[in-house]
Amino acid sequence: MPQAAPDTALAQWRARMGLSQRAAADALGASFRTYQQWESGISRQTGKPIDPPLTALLAAAAREHGLPPIS
């Protein structure tokens, strides 16, 4: 049976945006594995809870509202 998606802010954002984890990672400028950790809320190295950086959450909100990345 497939595992349910985590109920984190980034998981909810990704679902609203209709993105795969890989596409979400690319949209936020993160590696795929880093994004997976942020979305799960669990560190792969320690198994302890982690919070995504505020910059990632702000970037997700900006992307959702149609703001392009700053170049």
Automatic annotation (TrEMBL):
Q: Which SUPFAM superfamilies match?
A: lambda repressor-like DNA-binding domains
Annotated PROSITE patterns? HTH_CROC1
Which residues are in the HTH cro/C1-type domain?
10-44
Q: What InterPro entries does UniProt report for this protein, alphabetically? A: Cro/C1-type_HTH (IPR001387), Lambda_DNA-bd_dom_sf (IPR010982)
Task: Fetch the Gene3D superfamilies from UniProt.
Answer: lambda repressor-like DNA-binding domains
- Pfam families attached to this UniProt entry: HTH_3
Q: What is this protein called?
A: HTH cro/C1-type domain-containing protein
